[in-house]
Amino acid sequence: MKQLFIGLLLFTAACSSENLEPINPNDKNNVTLEFENRVAAQTLVLNDTKYTNSSGEDFTITTLNYFISNVALKKTDGTVVKMPDHYFLVRQADKNTLMPVLKDVPAADYTEMTFTIGVDSVKSISAVDQRIGVLDVASYGSDNMYWSWNSGYIFFKMEGISTVAPTNAGGLQKYQYHVGGFGGRTAATANNLRTVTLSLPSVASVRKSKSPTIHLIADISKVFSGVSPVKIASAAVVMSPAAAGPIANNYAKVFSVDHIH
To answer: Domain Copper-binding protein MbnP-like: where (predicted)?
Structure first.
């Protein structure tokens, strides 16, 4: 019986090895990034669902959008494949944006990924005709993710209702976090671009016939607590890049990789 069991294990291993397509450096395929937004252990639901942050403040989320760019994947041999021309706008209200695709990724085995939250300075100041799709400034990006008054993209937008927020002119207790600012214009200009590096829990293998999906979790509760506390009662409306640093530091901590499909 023991010999039979060992034989089955060897047979299974041999079959798995045979099924693993060898790496051809000329082959390419797509890699899908699946973003699942949560609030702690709860699935994020827009508008009516109430949550509680680390300071004990209640809040809902009516809008959640963020830019992802400059994705890079590290191979098992340590070399890095950069995808500089991929810019994605993840919008919780549009499920079609939650699974952006990296196109033409070279065949390899990958163990780590890096990306930027926001739109880098080079692209932000490039010619308007080079900023298309989600970066189209003629429409201020999808869902008003561009400041016409400040000539810059909003990297991260989160809005909702909280009983600790002051009542606005419309009679709503609304909080608004609009974070942008890529630095570079002057020494004093705030830079709220943040880079995230994540180890993959298992190898993401790209082959001519294999296109993996990297399933990421974004725990939005950490916007209030990732590095330091952010309280709605203290600052319900944040739109100045200079004031948004703590929020940017926090949202850099929201992401993790759950698994590889």
So the answer is: 29-239
